[in-house]
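Predict both folds.
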Amino acid sequence: MDIAPLADRMRPRTFDEFVGQDKIVGPGTPLRKAIESDNVTSMIFWGPPGTGKTTLAELIARSTRGQFVPFSAVSSGIKEVKEIISKAGNYYQLSGRRTYIFIDEIHRFNKAQQDAFLPYVEKGDIILIGATTENPSFEVISALMSRMRVYVLERLSEEAVKAIVTRALSDTERGLGKMNLSLAEGALEYVGAAADGDARRGLTLLEATASYLGAEKAITVKDLQEVHQKGMALYDKDGEEHYNLISALHKSLRGGDPDASLYWLARMLDGGEHPLYIVRRLVRFASEDVGLADPYALTLALNARDAYHFLGSPEGELAIAQLVIYLACAPKSNAAYTAFDKALEDAKEKGSLPVPLHIRNAPTSLMKALDYGKGYKYPHEYEEALTDQQYFPDELAGTEYYHPKEVGREAKLVEYLKKYKEYRKKLVQQPKK
């Protein structure tokens, strides 16, 4: 009988079995080449849970014949980590193999603890691989960050999760193959969506359902839902699917209904969802759906995050509830979100368009001789600090991405842009020299 959870048993043993993260470790990528040439340096993997951070670290160590030593910043002290590190140099001299120190949730170590890694990373005694779900630029000290390469892992696509689940279902050695189970119509899609980008969640749901049904069965969507309702849900303990709940909260906020929004918030918290996951989604909502119609919404969202960090549960949850009410009642505008999307599209499709000479900086005499900065109009010297100057590359002159809505504070920006566009028209109407 297998004691280890299915998610642990199905960890990839080779890069051929590793699904997802092709941008980082796919064939021909810089990291993959470094692994194949045994030229790996210290690094940080930043990404959501279940995206392969630990597995990837293990594969790197195995592929380079290194010694893999995992620690958790939650349960391990820096003293025991340093004891292993101190032996790494001797280990390399005796065996020719390098030591990979893997620190899960590295952001949990404080500044002084992180400082302890510096001399060993600098000397190359170890290859330090940190894993974090938090932004490392905020949580990891700059001295360590400057010596480590950061790789951003993305949540797995539904197709990737489905591939992992399918393999686990058929694998007779480590998976559920001996149970001779199959998936009825829609069941695989259900698991892929319920996993929410986390392979571990998908495999946990599959294993729980297989245990519930027994061998020689066809798993249906109804079976999967019933497993959730019996308390085996991946996120919430009351049986409702996590993905549907966060969607309900988001859409209730967008629809301006504070009461429904509070209900879905309560359902998620009561079901066991981590409050900071909800806050992250609310921060995104504040900038994506409320936007510049009420810029204070983003400030309030970050304040709610800080309040929860300071108070914890259940007191800190009131700050989240206040935020939910405010966001639901706030004026809504996605104008900034759509404008940025269009700007990104042009940046990607039109290549490296040159910066116009008149808005280039000219710190050297050579640059001045090449007309860098020539003709630049300093807005503060003009009435209302506006000029008819062009700031776009010529190929994009006159482009408009941002179309504000006449709601909330964004209505003021409509007035400004009307005035600004009058100056831009002057430029267009002027004959070219």
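Second protein follows, with its predicted structure tokens after the sequence.
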Amino acid sequence: MFAQRLQRVRNQMESQGVDVLLLSVGSDLPWLAGYEAMGLERLTMLVVPQDGDAHLVIPGLETARVTPQPDIFDIVAWDETENPIQKVVDLAGPNVSTAAIGDHTLSMFTVRLLDAMPAVQFRNASEVMSPLRSVKTADEIESLRKAAHAADRVIGRIQSGELAVLGRTEADVSAEIGRQLVDEGHYKKNFAIVASGPNAASPHHHADDTVITAGQNVLFDIGGTMRDDLGVGYCSDITRNIWLGQPPAEFTDMYAVLHQAQQTQVAAAVVGASCESVDRVGRKIIADAGFGEYFVHRTGHGIGVEAHEHPYIVEGNADVLTAGHAFSVEPGIYIPGKWGARLEDIVVATDDGPDVLATSDHALAVLQI
């Protein structure tokens, strides 16, 4: 699989006139070569010429972490007295005019490469990588589905009350969710937002020492990363809501609007639809119900090796959905100082229509106390 990905990358480089691809920290490297670089002051960089062998420049003390991929790259280890930047320059070759460098490369390395290669035009590697990574293969979709179902099981225990939250702090519940995500097969928790009452009006609330009490809503946005058979991680991301006690009609009416908007957006996420059209159809429903000013973020983001990647479901993105695009659909309504709600699924655009990876109930879970 890695060899096939490398060939696709080289084809993309050729079509875009990129002579060499330089990948360091971030998700492009593990997707392409199965190795995840540590964000150290010591440089790790995969050097991929359009023609010729690829090389993984890596600190000597890190080589034990590398699973050899002889069909993909040679390992070029450097010791503490060597200059890894010069190694990258030498491996890139003398005839480079355009280089694509990983978007997350640490600036201290990027600046040194710019100085060492003054005649080279640098571009973001995402111009090469994103069109490839955003369209998932069947194997990648199944990896995403497996991760989604694992997160679903955790959500199901929250919705049923098996994972109790009443009287506990948000931080305590968040920590337990993280443990359960790992128990369900994720190798790490990416996030576990637990936002109760007014805290749910902050879309990215950080779970704190707020005690979860009766008579309020609690928003859960959880996700982790699960490795596939090649050791590459794929992400889960799901948001659901519960109410502790009997919810007031004002909240259930608002939630009904949110639910309608989310389901309408999912149905609109068909191959050939523009990303912004999916955003618009749900945003209109929310605005027509009087909550337009309280939907403060884009509808969604792509997902794969990264929790957030292309395509982005947002006004201004006229790109059309292609079979294999995987992305979140997550409208929200947030009323400051009062409450908030969000409903999120991961959806894959297919030729047979939208494929929703989550299976947990979308309805507001009302837990009697």
